[in-house]
Specification:
alpha/beta, homodimer, Rossmann fold, 346 residues, 41% helix, 13 helices, 3 domains, six-stranded parallel sheet, 434 Repressor (Amino-terminal Domain), four-stranded parallel sheet, DNA-binding
DNA sequence: TTGTAGGCGTTATCAG
DNA sequence: CTGATAACGCCTACAA
């Protein structure tokens, strides 16, 4: 009596096992009364079908997964909600899995596909560079969302939906340059050569180079070897380093809003006013940027729209109604309180 | 050739199925050379055992789960890391599952126990009131972490590790009272009668009542019917309502740091200085409270210590080395910049 | 040390 | 419409 199985239910109902199965799975060929009776007993006894057994046998589970990089990244919160809704609308089950910052999401995906019978996968965040061997092994359609660069091969084997991180980063840097800043420090993330942090750093360099400003390595700070590379703590620590270095700067571009917040605190503690003494810019468009004082100038990624498109695209591909695509979304530079013209502030 | 199974590996190696299984599962009775050979083939072919099949058969999987209330609650980030480490130390696999704010975590737990063969469960956040029928159905040991009230029955069927929300909330209210505030607005969460929001509200009332101050319902604001009840957005909206109501107040106690941040913004926009015009207090001890300007006075829960104790307790109970316990952790009132004496500020 | 056979709980495929 | 029965992929006695 420890674990209830479908057999017990069948016996209790005085019907065959398959009848119970049919009732559970909303199969058409079963009489309404029988179904009702069976369902009643199931409710009474609190029977829960064993998912492992189902996954093992089932071939056509309508199920997709979303793998999220980072245990607890608020950036993806709204995206998940939206994907959930889209999946529901098409009657797909959705499994949500977090992958920690230094984990290999493709690896996790491979395992998950074996365990559940996934029809498709969405990757939220993470690396844009993956082992082609692993990519080849992943037989179900998948789409990366929010993940920058992508090698444009002739035959697309996956989809990608993202903002052009390099260009947007360049845009923000140009914005700061237009405000008159020349000594712009950047706080970026350097966990690996294949993360958005690198793309955003490149965009920064692009902008400076285009204006003929030499890139000063003393103004580049990279988060490394920490559990959460996009934390306020990291931003704070690096901004402190920057301040301590004594190097001259009038603006800080943090490639994530959280980093920007941390940087703001460090600057504040050092007696710098924002934006009067130093301008600070972020990236992502998190809520906190709106509620922080000063409100953060940032690059807002259209997360909702991207998530919706991602889910639709994946579902369409599964249905054979679409091929893989690389889609670039425009981001918006949101001017707020944390940046100002050099020498003529606010 | 679509899906590799243990049989294929066995054939490729020219050994029996069970030999492969033994190699995979680190069984003792297998010759080192055979194991090595098998493992090599597995690596080459990229074979991944089907987890569903394993779960179905296995009885002694060393696996526990942690269920987290809220899709993306940064509050639990550090806790998860710690639990992960403790589990690893004891060679337990850890399944991490998020339950959305309005989902039933016990329900999810029941399903998970069936699917994987869990030895125990940790609940992070969520309701403290559960259907006794469901509780009874959950046959594996489980411990609630961070979840306030608990009915003290003679025979404990689960464990609970938490701060005394009611008392701590009372402490914070008293602190504000001691600063001279009498008109203290509270922003709390009212999603259900069984959440920590209610406990904290009670603590607030306790403090006022003890001082003979009448409770003014016009000062009580509850978040309701939103996807994320602990958001800055909610705090902002309620603080705005409070301001618009024209009711008199000199302090705001938000029962979560995020709510406090939102409230701060609303006050700031209304031209109120913090803490000169209005004191604001939070609860939880999130990072943001430290980096926000002004830094938030808050109740810091010892999340790390609680998480560690939680994991240890659960593992001990599983090993039969301990019985269920209700453990209360002390929280710390952290005085920072957002609160000040009434009429004699900062 | 290794291989064979049976079964975990379900669903799919058949006959009735 | 319903009920047996054979898989699903793996683990585990048990036999060799």
């Amino acid at each position: 009596m420890d674990e209830l199985t479908i057999k017990d239910i069948a016996r209790k109902c005085g019907v065959g096992i398959s009848t119970v199965s049919r009732a559970i799975n909303n199969h058409p060929d079963i009489s309404p009364e029988t179904r009702k009776m069976v369902m009643e007993v199931i409710k009474e006894t609190g029977f829960i079908p064993n998912n492992s057994a189902r996954n093992l046998k089932r071939v056509d589970a309508k199920c997709i997964a979303v793998l999220i990089k980072g245990i607890t990244n608020p950036f993806f919160g709204p995206a998940i909600q939206i994907i959930e809704k889209q999946a529901q609308k098409k009657k797909y089950a959705l499994v949500i899995q977090h992958v920690d910052a230094y984990g290999n999401e493709l690896e996790v995906a491979l395992h998950l596909v074996k365990e559940k019978r996934l029809r498709g996968i969405i990757f939220l965040g993470g690396s844009y560079q993956h082992d082609p061997v692993q990519i080849a092994k992943l037989k179900v359609p998948f789409v990366f969302c929010t993940i920058g660069k992508v090698k444009d091969t002739e035959e697309k084997v996956y989809s990608n939906i993202a903002v052009d991180d390099r260009a947007e980063s360049c845009k923000m840097t140009n914005y700061l340059l237009d405000l008159g800043h020349k000594r712009i420090a950047i706080i970026t993330e350097g966990t690996g050569a294949e993360s958005v942090g690198q793309l955003r750093l490149e965009g920064y360099k692009d902008a400076l180079t285009a204006r003929g400003i030499e890139i000063d390595e003393k103004l580049i700070y990279e988060v490394k070897d920490v559990e959460d590379p996009y934390s306020m703590e990291s931003g704070y620590a690096l901004a402190k380093k920057l301040l301590d270095s004594g190097v001259d700067f009038t603006a800080v571009f943090a490639i994530a809003d959280f980093l920007a917040v941390g940087a703001c605190r460090a600057l504040h503690e050092a007696g710098k006013r924002i934006p009067e003494d130093v301008s600070v810019a972020g990236y992502d468009g998190l809520d906190i940027g709106e509620y922080y004082t000063p409100q953060l100038t940032t690059i807002r990624q259209p997360m909702e729209a991207m998530a919706e498109r991602t889910a639709q695209l994946l579902l369409d591909i599964i249905d054979g109604k679409s091929k893989h695509e690389y889609i670039s979304f425009p981001a918006e530079l949101v001017e707020r309180e944390s940046t100002a013209k050099l020498g003529n502030q606010d």
